[in-house]
Amino acid sequence: MKSKRMKFALFICVFILYGCAGGSKSISLDISQNINNKQVIETLTGNHNFTNTNIQKIAFMANDRGVSKYINSLYQVRNTSGKLKSQEAIKNYSEVISNKLRQQQKEKERRIQEKKARTFIPYTTTYGVDCYGCEQQNGRGQTAIGVTLDANLGVLMPNGNWQSGIKYGPYYIIAADPSIPLCSIIKFTNHGLSGNGLQPDEEFYGIVLDRGGAIRGTHLDLYIGLESSSVIHKVQNTTPQAEIIRIGGQSGAHSCSI
Using an 8 Å Cβ cutoff, are 39 and 13 in contact? Predict the structure, then answer.
């Protein structure tokens, strides 16, 4: 493994020494100068353009005898103690790269695990302001957080204005289990729903503004205005996915950040 890392580092040095990075500044290292770890790292971590064309150039140069001879000379530079400074620098840089890759992999795995923890298969139903057990008069009621819903006027926004339809800002209103904080935002994919701007093959976002006696676990209830409304309906049998992309977000006594 160490041998492979050394070869990789030498290969990159060829690239840097001959300034093949498209659009980047050509860099040359004089073998008469002392080569140190900091210099190698700063050189190799510059903003270089690794295009397919440049990779082909590097591959060509790696087989060039003149280049190999020059690199071999560079590789023999020693410090006052007799140590091969270039060898030590390349070895250290190889370790830096390995550590960086390990950290990136750990971060990637952490994000994947976090997403899994926030993702579930929902059982999605719909409800209206006049649902059984909902406290409403003449088609007007309130969600659990206190947002006013009206079957005719729409949804009352934080600024005091009515927004027609069934959305709170850009989000569809949903009732969810108490384990999901109010004002949380949920992304729905592969939902199979259609109507009121929804397409079965397109994702949409909902915001948790409500609760319900029968809404427990992965059960999510989507607000549609009136119980008799067919504005949103199932058109495809799918295995939907719901991902919590924001937890909470309350911005006032009866409002959420949008």
Answer: no
Distance CA 19, CA 27 (A): 6
Q: How far is CA 59 from the centre of its chain?
A: 34
Q: Write the CB contacts of 155 (distance below 8 Å, at least 6 apart in sequence).
A: 147, 148, 149, 162, 163, 165, 166, 167, 168, 173
Name beta bridge partners: 223: 127
Bridge partners, 137 (sequence order): 140
Q: What residue has token string 């003449």?
A: 138
**pLDDT tens digits, residue range 18-62?**
444 444 333 333 433 444 444 444 444 444 444 445 444 444 444
207 burial (CB, 10 Å; 0-12 / 13-18 / 19+) is buried
Which carries the bigger pLDDT value, residue 109 or residue 65? 109
H helices within 76-131, ranges in order? 85-118
DSSP H/E element including 171: strand 171-175
